[in-house]
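Appendix B. One record, verbatim.
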Amino acid sequence: MIAIDLVLTVLALPIAAAALYLGLMAVLARAPRARVAPAPRLRFDVIVPAHDEEQGIADTVASLLAVEYPRDRFRVIVVADNCTDRTAARAAAAGAEVFVRVDLERRGKGYALADAFHRRLDAGRADVLVVVDADTQVSPNLLSAFAARFEAGAAVVQADYGVQNVRSSWRTRIMTIALAAFHGVRSSARERLGLSCGLRGNGMGFSAPVLRANPPGAFSIVEDLEYGIQLGYAGVRVQYVDEAHVWGQMAVTEGASRSQRRRWERGRNALVREHVPGLLAGAWRRRDVVLLDLAMDLLVPPLGQLVAATIVGLAVSVAAMWLGVVVAPWLWAVSALAIVGYVGRAVALSGLGLAGVADLVWAPVYIIWKLTLRLSDRGRKPEEWVRTTREANP
């Protein structure tokens, strides 16, 4: 019947648009041309915001101090923010400079970074300020790769962000594929198109002039995404540095994963409501594809929701073909193929090989878990900065 076909087609249109957007990202995801590292000239301040991170802060500092860049041209500065443990002492013992911050009113990573940026810019020593999370290992070429981009004219850069504890559980392996999709596939495609890859919170680099001209005003639980949007409004593009890597610790158990995912989902939903209208209006007014893509990045639903909607829509439309439904099944099928291509490209970039394909058997469990989490979280407000529990690896 024409009416049923029309309804299923209308329902398929936004899903198909989102899926085709991801499919296009997968097709365009290619590593950019390798850049030759310039002679070390730039001075870096590497800022590590830390809240009760005594367990792993020394390893992070050691990883940063081991980068292949002249030691007299970079500093590692740990911001011990409202800590109740020995984070500051262990960071200092590992060789970092330490800034102890106590402010019970202005709590959170965004405030910690804003204070640290202000102090380092006032000191006037660094040409570039880099942010690395306190549970992170970095590739030895982090600063040299960043230097190549800044010397070539970049204002803000983002390293590739992956999972450190890949083999800890099926959850961390699924997260490896998810980050390869969200960071690797999308970011490399955007870099190829000259768009902004956005900020991902870990492995970010900012030129001092950009920070002075655009002081961070992002203090939500997803301050990285928020500040990336603010830079987009200001006409500043975030460049993706695919050859430099940061690897963060991901939660292993369901309880810790739930806490972490809940904060991310709440913060992201708040940004959708707050910024999508402005980004779309700005894109139209300024004919700015960077702003349009930043809006698309927020509008495209999480992959789990997109997969669930596509499976249901495809099943219903195929079952309704005996009623004369013709157009809708094709739209839902195209959506499914685009998603398969996107996930396949992510698996290839994840480095998991055939094991990654096998791990996709857990994807339905992960999708159902995320959907139940989202439904149970309706109406709650985003939380402040809370340290995610890092369990011992099983």
